[in-house]
Design brief:
By secondary structure, the chain is mainly beta. The chain is elongated and about 80 Å long. The longest helix is centred in the middle third of the chain and has 19 residues. The strands form five sheets. Strands 1, 3, 12, 16, 17 and 19 form a six-stranded antiparallel beta sheet that branches. Helices cover 9% and strands 44% of the residues.
Length: 245
């Protein structure tokens, strides 16, 4: 029987699982807490749900067959400048192929974080999987040539909270439902920066079993949806001890 034990799980996924043989035997009053989490801020903010829009050429003489440049971003972790660069590359390719002259530019106001878009084509943000909310715009059509100001602030953070779930922990709740969450955080650094979470005050949760033959730790978002980290290294260190020790 173990009075205190530290478990370290490492891998290149947001789901880490380990089997123990022989099983780890613990006391009935044992509890678990997160000691440390280390990874990189590579959690995607653009995916198949918010990566599309199009620009329609306005000086096209054939109105029955409008010329439209469809923009699709690959899943990834982007800053506004990254998005702008990817969009411009696709527009350049479209212009070269179709002999058009579409232009696009986006900036962010540092005071209220609303975006400004300058485009000489008709912006189609009305698609179901539109990037509009990321830019702070509504899902509708916007006319060209004017400098457009978004209705809301730029929303690059589709993940509001990252939960550390542990299958052998109990005692936490998400709204009214029981949860296996033992810690929550949000990566505040820039894209690609190192993420280190080491809680100064450990919060321990009671175990739902005392004969540990396996353990699974997973990172999910605020809605308990699995999240990706693009294969970056993830290390999670857990501490198990007897209550009151």
């Amino acid at each position: 029987m173990h009075e205190s034990i530290t478990l370290s799980l490492t891998g290149n996924s947001t789901v880490l699982s380990v089997n123990y043989f022989p099983p780890i035997n613990l006391y009935d009053d044992s509890e678990i807490a997160l000691l440390c989490l280390q990874s990189f801020n590579s959690f995607p903010n653009i995916n198949e749900n918010n990566n599309k829009f199009s620009i329609q050429v306005v000086d096209n003489e054939n109105n029955n067959n409008p010329m439209i440049c469809f923009i699709t971003l690959e899943e990834g972790c982007y800053e506004i400048e990254d998005i702008k660069d990817r969009v411009k590359k696709q527009i350049v390719a479209y212009n070269s192929k179709n002999l058009t002259n579409l232009t696009f530019d986006i900036t962010v106001d540092p005071d209220d974080f609303r975006s400004y878009i300058k485009c000489n084509g008709i912006l189609h943000f009305e698609y179901p999987y539109s990037i509009a909310p990321v830019f702070g715009f509504e899902k509708r059509v916007y006319n060209p040539y004017n400098i457009l100001r978004s209705e809301k602030a730029v929303n690059l953070n589709t993940i509001n909270s990252i939960k550390v779930m542990c299958n052998i922990a109990q005692g936490s709740f998400s709204n009214h439902l029981q949860s296996h969450s033992i810690y929550e955080f949000f990566p505040s650094g820039k894209t690609g920066s190192k993420v280190i979470q080491a809680p100064p005050n450990l919060i321990y949760y009671k175990l739902n079993k005392t004969n540990i033959d396996s353990i699974t730790v997973q990172l999910v978002d605020q809605d308990h949806n699995p999240i990706d980290n693009f294969g970056e290294a993830l290390t999670i260190v857990l501490h198990i001890k007897r209550y009151g020790s």
